[in-house]
Amino acid sequence: MTGIRVLLADDQALVRAAFAMLLDSAPGMEVVGQAGTGAEAVALARSARADVVVMDIRMPEMDGIEATRRIAADEDLAGVRVLVLTTYDTDEHVLEALRAGASGFLVKDTEPADLLAAIRTVAAGDALLSPGPTARLIARVLRTPGPPEPAAGPALGGLSDRERQVLALVARGQNNTEIAETLGLSPLTAKTHVSRIMGKLDVRDRAQLVIVAYESGIVVPGGDRAAGRPDGGAR
Predict the structure, then answer these.
(1) Which residues carry this modification: 4-aspartylphosphate (predicted)?
(2) What average pLDDT values come out for the chain (235 residues) when binned by 10 residues?
(3) 3-state class of 209 per DSSP?
(4) CATH code for the domain of 213
(5) Nearest CA to 196 among 183, 209, 186?
């Protein structure tokens, strides 16, 4: 079985070394490169054929947000997932990184076992966690929302009422099993709905669905209302 190839991007050599020791000692993981700048991270993502990039936000020359954006926009790197590192989970730059294409975020002082689990989750193509903390962060940042993304309105017009309900539940942190229970569906049907929504909205993973849901008004930051549901809720 092929292991998960991980690229570490952080401007602090000690942080990279500590993460590298942890990952190289974990079954099924291999550190294939270390970058001290965002530009190095983009170049190494291409040359080292990494599966997951563990990306710090604050780096010289090119920050982690721009590096994430370039990796996500590169068709040759379509299978590469980015896991963003942040000092605090209230860092508003995390939202920018998620918009740029990151699959989730991790606080730097996380437990080692949680870091390994997060890398495996992202490598499997899922958003980090499910994605409750991500949703809470976005809700805080968007309490004073700006205009939605230009393509948000037309794209959402292609969703059915059921798909809008599913999207709202994804944004509120529910996994496929929980969505199935909430809407009286089978887990497979819930998974199919999520996959179709991702295809219609042209997003990489569930983290991107959370962004779209909040920016489009499908869910309202700090409130209980969810658009597209007759009772106004997302229980």
Answers:
(1) 56
(2) 86 94 94 95 93 93 93 89 79 78 83 90 68 56 49 66 92 85 94 91 81 79 47 38
(3) helix
(4) 3.40.50.2300
(5) 209
